[in-house]
C-alpha cells in the first residue's frame, strides 16, 4: 500500500470508497466461500462421520416419496387416510359432546325458568349464545383434535417439503411458488393460519398470490359441511361398510377441485394484476426425523386447536345470539329469518341453492362452522340451532321437505369451497398485507367466483339434465 | 365526507400536494439530466417531459425560482446548487429503487423504470441510506447508470456512447440508457444486455449495425446513442469455460460434480440465497431426485438435499467428477 494511511473518519470513508471500485464484482462470493472453507476445516477437525446409515435410508424413502410414478398417488392416499381417520374418529366424541352440552342447556334453561327469569332472557342466553358455542365446540373440537396432531406428525416427519417439491412444477406453470403447497397444507387446518404460513415465500408477488388463493383450500370449519354433504348425498347410496371411505374419497375430490381453482386463479393473477415471472425457488428437503410426540401434542393441541377453537367461540357466541334473534323476532307472525330467506330465494335459486343457505352463509361470515346448524335451524323453524340425530333424518328433512337435489348438494359443496373467507382470515390478510386493496380483493374475488361458478353449474344442470 | 384529514376534500388536497411535489421533482430531474448530457433545458423541453399546460408550467418554474432551486435566463433554465442537491436525491431514489426492484424483488428489467418513477418521490435521505445499505451500497443501477452517493456526488458515468466508439473495436456494453422507455424497449427487444461484448460493423446515417460474434443487431442511430460501451479488459472479458464445465441442470441423476461458478448474470437476492445455501466454488454436488416434469430437481450438497428450479440450476456451472 503506497497510499498514505488515512486518519480522520472522513478520510477513511473516502479511501474505502476509492478502494471499493477496485474490488472485484465477485468479492461477496469470496467472502462466503472463505466462510464455508473455514467451516469445512473446523468440521473436519471436530466432527466424526459415523458412517452413512440413516442417510441412505432417507434417500431410499425420498426415492419412493418423490418418484415419478408413486409420488402423487401416495400423496393423495395419505390425504385420504387423514380425512378418513378424522371423519371416523370424530363422529362419536362429537355426538357425546353435543348431548352433554345440550343436556346442560336444558337443565340451565330449566333453572332460569324456575327462578322466574323472563323467557326471552333464557332464550337469548341459553338457546342463543350458549347453543352457538356448544355447537361450535362439539362440531369442531373432535375433528381438530384428530386432524391437527396427524397433520403435525406429517410436518414433523419432514414430508411436507416433499409435497412442495412434487407439486412445484404445477405451481411454476401457474406463475406461483412451490412453497405455496406448504401454506395450502396449513390452510386445511385454518385459512388464517395458512395466510400467515405464506411468510415462508420470499417473493412478495408470489406471496400475495398464495395469500389471495389460500381460501380455495377448505378449512376445518368447512369440513363439517363437506362431510355432511358427502355422507348424506354421496355415501348414502353405498353399503355402510364403505360409506366412510366413500365420504373421505368425496372430500378428497372436493379438495382436488379446490387445488385446481388455486392453480387456475394463481395463473390468472400472475398474468393480470400480479404480473411477473416465477421467481427463484430453493427448497431444502430436510432429513426425516422421528416425530417428537410430546411436542406434537403440545403444538397441535395448544397452539393450533385451542387457538382456532377460541377464536371460533369468540365469533360463534354473537352469531348464536343473532340467529336466535332472527328466528324469534317475528313482526307480523313471520320470523326475520324466514323473511330474509324468502327475500334471498331468487338469488339462491339462480345459484342452484336457496335463500336459507345464503342466509346461513351471511350469518356465518364470522365463522364458517355454523353454516350447517344455521341452515337446519331455519329449515326447522324451531327457533334455535339443533343437532339432527341421524343422517337419515337429515336426508328426509333436506330432500323430502325442502326439495334438495343433487344439484343443491353439488353447488353447496362448490359454494363452500368458493366464497368469501371468514372474518378472521380477512383480518389476517389485512395484517399480513397491510393493504385495504388486497384485502378487498382477497375477500370478494372468491365470492364472485362462487357466484359465477354456481350459477353456471345451475344453468347447465337445468338446461341439460332438467333439474 | 368533509371530515378534516379523511374527507374527500382533504384527500383531494393531499392529492394536489403529492402531485405538485412529483412535478417539482420531475422538473429538477430533467434539468439535471440535460446538464449532465451537456444540453440546455428550456421551457419547451420541460413541457415535453412534464406534459403540463403553459400556465401551469409557468407557475411551476416561477415557484422553483422563488425557492432558489432554479435560475433562468430567458427561456433557459439551470439548477442552482441547492436544486442540484434535490435533483441528485431524487435520482438516487430512482436508481436505488430500480436496483431493488430488479435484484431483490425480481421485477422484469423492462418494467423497473416505470415502477421506480412512481416509487421515487417523497423519500427521506435516511430511508435512502437504509435502502442503499441493505443492498451493500451498490454503485450502478440495473441499466449501468451510476447511483449518486449519500453525500451528493455522482460517480462518473462509465463508457462511451456507441456513436463515438471506433468501428471494429470490441467493446463491452456498460450502460443501456433507460430513457426514453421506448428506445430502451427496442434495445432489450433486440436482445442487447449489460456485459455483452460487441463490435460496430457498419455505421450509416440511417442505421448502426452491431455484432456479438453470433447475431447482428440493427439499430436506428437515435437508439444506438443510448448504448454505452467500454474497452474490454482481460478482467471483464467473459471467461470462456472449457467444455467440461456444464450447467448443473445437465447433470444426470446420480452423477457427481464440483461447483465451478455461478453465472455472472445471476444477481441480487437469488444469487445470495444460493451462496448462503453453500453453492460456492469447489463444493461437491450430486444430482439426486427428479420430479415428474424433470423440474425442479433436488441436489445433494454439503449433507443436505436442496431443490432448485431449472432457472437456477441452469446458472450454476459445474464440472463433472469421475
Folded structure, characterized:
The complex is a heterodimer of chains A (467) and B (322). Chain A has 467 residues and is an all-alpha fold. Chain A has 19 helices and one strand. Chain A has one domain. The model of chain A has no long low-confidence stretch (mean pLDDT 82). Chain B is α+β, with helices and mostly antiparallel strands and 322 residues long. Chain B has four domains: 8-79, Winged helix-like DNA-binding domain superfamily/Winged helix DNA-binding domain (Arc Repressor Mutant, subunit A); 90-134, Diphtheria Toxin Repressor, domain 2; 160-231, Ferrous iron transport protein A (FeoA) (SH3 type barrels, Roll); 245-320, Ferrous iron transport protein A (FeoA) (SH3 type barrels). The radius of gyration of chain B is 24 Å and the shape is globular. Classes of the chains: A mainly alpha (467), B alpha+beta (322). The A-B interface holds A 17, 20-21, 24-26, 28-29, 32-33, 36-37, 59, 62-63, 66, 68, 71-72, 165-166, 168-169, 172, 178, 202-205, 276-287 and B 105-108, 136-137, 139, 149, 235, 262, 264, 269-270, 272-278, 280-283, 288-293, 295-296, 298, 302, 304-309, 311-312. Strand 1 (282-285) of chain A pairs antiparallel with strand 14 (304-308) of chain B.
Amino acid at each position: 500500500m503506497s497510499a498514505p494511511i488515512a486518519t480522520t473518519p472522513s478520510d477513511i470513508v473516502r479511501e474505502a470508497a476509492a478502494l471499493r471500485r477496485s474490488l472485484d464484482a465477485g468479492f461477496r462470493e469470496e467472502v462466503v466461500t472463505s466462510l464455508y472453507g473455514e467451516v469445512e476445516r473446523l468440521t473436519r477437525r471436530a466432527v466424526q462421520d459415523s458412517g452413512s446409515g440413516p442417510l441412505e435410508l432417507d434417500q431410499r424413502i425420498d426415492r419412493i416419496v418423490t418418484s415419478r410414478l408413486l409420488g402423487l398417488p401416495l400423496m393423495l392416499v395419505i390425504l385420504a387416510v387423514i380425512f378418513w381417520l378424522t371423519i371416523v374418529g370424530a363422529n362419536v366424541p362429537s355426538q357425546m359432546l353435543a348431548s352433554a352440552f345440550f343436556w346442560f342447556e336444558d337443565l340451565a334453561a330449566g333453572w332460569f325458568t324456575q327462578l322466574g327469569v323472563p323467557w326471552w332472557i333464557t332464550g337469548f342466553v341459553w338457546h342463543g349464545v350458549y347453543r352457538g358455542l356448544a355447537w361450535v365446540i362439539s362440531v369442531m373440537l373432535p375433528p381438530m383434535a384428530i386432524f391437527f396432531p396427524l397433520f403435525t406428525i406429517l410436518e414433523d416427519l419432514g414430508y411436507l417439503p416433499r409435497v412442495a417439491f412434487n407439486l412445484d412444477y404445477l405451481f411454476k406453470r401457474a406463475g406461483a411458488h412451490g412453497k405455496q403447497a406448504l401454506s395450502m397444507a396449513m390452510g386445511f387446518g385454518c385459512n388464517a393460519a395458512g395466510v400467515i404460513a405464506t411468510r415462508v415465500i420470499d417473493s412478495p408477488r408470489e406471496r400475495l398470490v398464495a395469500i389471495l388463493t389460500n381460501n380455495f383450500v377448505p378449512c376445518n370449519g368447512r369440513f363439517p359441511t363437506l362431510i355432511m354433504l358427502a355422507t348424506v348425498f354421496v355415501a348414502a347410496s353405498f353399503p355402510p361398510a364403505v360409506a366412510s371411505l366413500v365420504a373421505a374419497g368425496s372430500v378428497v375430490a372436493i379438495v382436488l377441485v379446490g387445488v385446481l381453482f388455486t392453480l387456475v386463479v394463481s395463473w390468472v393473477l400472475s398474468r393480470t394484476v400480479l404480473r411477473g415471472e416465477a421467481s427463484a425457488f430453493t427448497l431444502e428437503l430436510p432429513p426425516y426425523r422421528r416425530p417428537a410426540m410430546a411436542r406434537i401434542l403440545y403444538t397441535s393441541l395448544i397452539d393450533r386447536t385451542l387457538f382456532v377453537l377460541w377464536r371460533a367461540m369468540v365469533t360463534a357466541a354473537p352469531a348464536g345470539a343473532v340467529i336466535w334473534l332472527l328466528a324469534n323476532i317475528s313482526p307480523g307472525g313471520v320470523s326475520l329469518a324466514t323473511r330474509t330467506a324468502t327475500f334471498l330465494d331468487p338469488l339462491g335459486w339462480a345459484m342452484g341453492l336457496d335463500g336459507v343457505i345464503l342466509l346461513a352463509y351471511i350469518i356465518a361470515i364470522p365463522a364458517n362452522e355454523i353454516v350447517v346448524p344455521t341452515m337446519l335451524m331455519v329449515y326447522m323453524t324451531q327457533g334455535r340451532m339443533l343437532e339432527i340425530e341421524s343422517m337419515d333424518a337429515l336426508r328426509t328433512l333436506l330432500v323430502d321437505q325442502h326439495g334438495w337435489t343433487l344439484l343443491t348438494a353439488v353447488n353447496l359443496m362448490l359454494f363452500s369451497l368458493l366464497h368469501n373467507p371468514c372474518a378472521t382470515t380477512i383480518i389476517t390478510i389485512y395484517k399480513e398485507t397491510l393493504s385495504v386493496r388486497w384485502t378487498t380483493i382477497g375477500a370478494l374475488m372468491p365470492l364472485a367466483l362462487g357466484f359465477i361458478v354456481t350459477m353456471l353449474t345451475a344453468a347447465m344442470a337445468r338446461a341439460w339434465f332438467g333439474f | 365526507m368533509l371530515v378534516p384529514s379523511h374527507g374527500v376534500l382533504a384527500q383531494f388536497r393531499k392529492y394536489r400536494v403529492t402531485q405538485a411535489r412529483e412535478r417539482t421533482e420531475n422538473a429538477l430531474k430533467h434539468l439535471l439530466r440535460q446538464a449532465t448530457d451537456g444540453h440546455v433545458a428550456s421551457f419547451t423541453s420541460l413541457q415535453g417531459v412534464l406534459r403540463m399546460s403553459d400556465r401551469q408550467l409557468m407557475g411551476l418554474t416561477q415557484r422553483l425560482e422563488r425557492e432558489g432551486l432554479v435560475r433562468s435566463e430567458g427561456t433557459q433554465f439551470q439548477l442552482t446548487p441547492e436544486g442540484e442537491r434535490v435533483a441528485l436525491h431524487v435520482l438516487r431514489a430512482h436508481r436505488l429503487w430500480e436496483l431493488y426492484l430488479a435484484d431483490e424483488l425480481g421485477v422484469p428489467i423492462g418494467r423497473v423504470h416505470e415502477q421506480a418513477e412512481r416509487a421515487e418521490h417523497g423519500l427521506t435521505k435516511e430511508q435512502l441510506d437504509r435502502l442503499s445499505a441493505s443492498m451493500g451500497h451498490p454503485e450502478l443501477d440495473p441499466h449501468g447508470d451510476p447511483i449518486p452517493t449519500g453525500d451528493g456526488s455522482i460517480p462518473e458515468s462509465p463508457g462511451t456512447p456507441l456513436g463515438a466508439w471506433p468501428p471494429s473495436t470490441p467493446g463491452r456494453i456498460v450502460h443501456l440508457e433507460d430513457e426514453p422507455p421506448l428506445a430502451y424497449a427496442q434495445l432489450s427487444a433486440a436482445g442487447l444486455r449489460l456485459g455483452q461484448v460487441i463490435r460496430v460493423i457498419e455505421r450509416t446515417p440511417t442505421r448502426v449495425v452491431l455484432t456479438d460474434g453470433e447475431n447482428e443487431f440493427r439499430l436506428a442511430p437515435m437508439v444506438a446513442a443510448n448504448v454505452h460501451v467500454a474497452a474490454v479488459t482481460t478482467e471483464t472479458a467473459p471467461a470462456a469455460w472449457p467444455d467440461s464445465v456444464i450447467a448443473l441442470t445437465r447433470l444426470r441423476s446420480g452423477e457427481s460434480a464440483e461447483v465451478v461458478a455461478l453465472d455472472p448474470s445471476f444477481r441480487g437476492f437469488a444469487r445470495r440465497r444460493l451462496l448462503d445455501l453453500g453453492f460456492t466454488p469447489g463444493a461437491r454436488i450430486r444430482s439426486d431426485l427428479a420430479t415428474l416434469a424433470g423440474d425442479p430437481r433436488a441436489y445433494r450438497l454439503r449433507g443436505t438435499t436442496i431443490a432448485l428450479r431449472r432457472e437456477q440450476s441452469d446458472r450454476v456451472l459445474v464440472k463433472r467428477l469421475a
